[in-house]
Specification:
Blueprint lengths: L12 H36 L14 E4 L2 E4 L1 E4 L1 H4 L10 H8 L2 H13 L4 E4 L2 H11 L4 E6 L7 H12 L6 E3 L1 H9 L4 H10 L6 E5 L3 H9 L5 E5 L36 H8 L6 E4 L9 H10 L4 E4 L6 H14 L10
Parallel strand pairs: 3-4, 3-10, 4-5, 5-6, 6-7, 7-8, 8-9, 9-10
Antiparallel strand pairs: 1-2
Length: about 350
C-alpha cells in the first residue's frame, strides 16, 4: 500500500532507496564515461607523442645535396618554430599562433615532418631541434643564419659563427635581413668577409636576401658562397603591393605604408632571369608570400622557375599535404629551363 506524503518535501523509505540506487547508477555511468574519456585522451597523447625513432617510410621525398649534405627539397621554415608569424594587420593572429604552437606541438611537428621525409629545419629553432633529436632519437638537421652588421669586428663575427656552429648546424647562411641592410648601405664587401670567415667551419655557406641586389652583388664580388637563399613568389594575389608602389628594400622600412608584410619578392621575373645565369644551388623562401598563395601554386611556381629547394613555414596539420605536393611537383618538373644544381 502506498504511503501518503504529509508534505511536498517528505521522502518515503522506498523513495530514498530508489533515489539512492539511481544516483549510484548515475555515478557509475559517469565514472565509466570519465574513465573512457581519460583512456581516449591518454591514447591520443601517446599517439601524438614524438616517436622513439623518426625513421619512417619517407623514401618518396626528393632530396638534393649542398656540399656533402643531403637535404630534402622541402625544408621546414623556422619562423613558426622560433615563435614568429607574419599576420599583416590581423591583430589576433599572433596570439592565436602562440597559443597553438607549444613546445609539445613543435616536437610533434618535427616527428610528422620526418615521417614525410623532411629532414632539415631552416633558419631558427636550433634548441628545439637539439631537444627533439636527443630525447626522441630524431635525425632532424638544422641550417641557422649568421647575423652580419657593419662595423662588426672579425673577433665578434667569429664568435657568432662559432655559436651558430654549436647548434649542430649542417650548413650556415648569412641572414637575409643582414645582407639586405649591408647591400642597401653600400657595404657588400662585408658579405665577402663573412663568407670567408665562415668557410673555416668546413660547412657549406650560403648568402640570403629578399632583394635581388644581394645575389647580384655577391656574383659581382665573386663571393665564394656555396648556395643562395632568395625569396621567390609570383605577384598574382590580391594583397600584392601595386607595381607603382614597389621599392627595393621596402621590407626593411616598416613605416612604409605600401608594405604590410605582404610582398617579399618585388621582381619575380627579374629574379627568375638572373638565376638562370647562376651556377650555385638556390634555396627559395617566402614562396607562398607569407600565406597569400596556395601551396599547389607557390610550389609549382618556385620549382618550375629554378629553385632547387624551398623553405616553407608549416603547422603540423599542413605537412602531409605539402610533402605530397612537393613530391608530385618535383616529379613533374624534372625538365626545366634552369637545370637542377643540387
Amino acid at each position: 500500500m502506498k504511503q501518503p506524503r504529509t508534505s511536498a518535501n517528505s521522502v518515503t523509505r522506498r523513495d530514498f532507496l530508489l533515489t539512492g540506487a539511481q544516483a549510484a547508477a548515475g555515478a557509475a555511468a559517469a565514472a565509466s564515461i570519465v574513465g573512457a574519456s581519460q583512456s581516449a585522451a591518454a591514447a591520443t597523447a601517446k599517439e601524438k607523442a614524438p616517436a622513439a625513432s623518426a625513421s619512417v617510410n619517407a623514401a618518396e621525398m626528393p632530396c638534393g645535396t649542398i656540399g656533402k649534405v643531403k637535404i630534402s627539397r622541402l625544408l621546414l621554415g623556422g619562423n613558426l618554430i622560433g615563435g614568429f608569424m607574419h599576420s599583416r594587420d590581423l591583430k589576433y593572429v599572433k596570439a592565436l599562433f602562440r597559443a597553438y604552437v607549444t613546445e609539445e606541438k613543435i616536437l610533434e611537428t618535427f616527428r610528422v615532418a620526418e615521417q614525410h621525409g623532411i629532414n632539415t629545419v631552416f633558419e631558427t629553432g636550433g634548441d628545439y631541434v637539439q631537444k627533439y633529436n636527443h630525447q626522441f632519437n630524431g635525425h632532424m638537421q638544422f641550417i641557422p643564419h649568421i647575423k652580419v652588421e657593419a662595423g662588426q669586428s672579425d673577433a665578434a663575427l667569429k664568435d657568432h659563427i662559432q655559436q651558430q656552429l654549436e647548434t649542430g648546424a649542417v650548413a650556415l647562411y648569412i641572414w637575409g635581413v643582414s645582407a639586405d641592410k649591408l647591400v642597401e648601405d653600400g657595404k657588400p664587401e662585408m658579405l665577402l668577409k663573412a663568407v670567408e670567415l665562415a668557410k673555416a667551419t668546413g660547412l657549406p655557406i650560403g648568402v640570403g636576401g629578399h632583394s635581388l641586389q644581394v645575389p647580384m652583388a655577391c656574383e659581382k664580388l665573386k663571393v665564394p658562397c656555396d648556395f643562395y637563399v632568395k625569396t621567390l613568389h609570383s605577384d598574382d594575389y590580391p594583397s600584392a603591393t601595386p607595381k607603382e608602389k614597389r621599392t627595393d628594400f621596402m621590407w626593411q622600412h616598416q613605416g612604409n605604408t605600401a608594405f604590410w608584410e605582404n610582398m617579399w619578392c618585388i621582381d619575380p621575373e627579374e629574379t627568375i632571369a638572373f638565376f638562370k645565369t647562376v651556377t650555385k644551388p638556390w634555396l627559395a623562401y617566402k614562396v607562398l608570400a607569407a600565406g597569400a598563395i596556395y601551396p599547389k601554386d607557390g610550389f609549382a611556381y618556385a620549382f618550375k622557375n629554378g629553385a632547387d629547394f624551398i623553405a616553407v613555414g608549416m603547422f603540423d596539420f599542413q605537412i602531409k599535404e605539402d610533402s605530397d605536393l612537393v613530391c608530385k611537383t618535383v616529379r613533374r618538373t624534372q625538365e626545366r629551363e634552369r637545370p637542377w644544381l643540387a
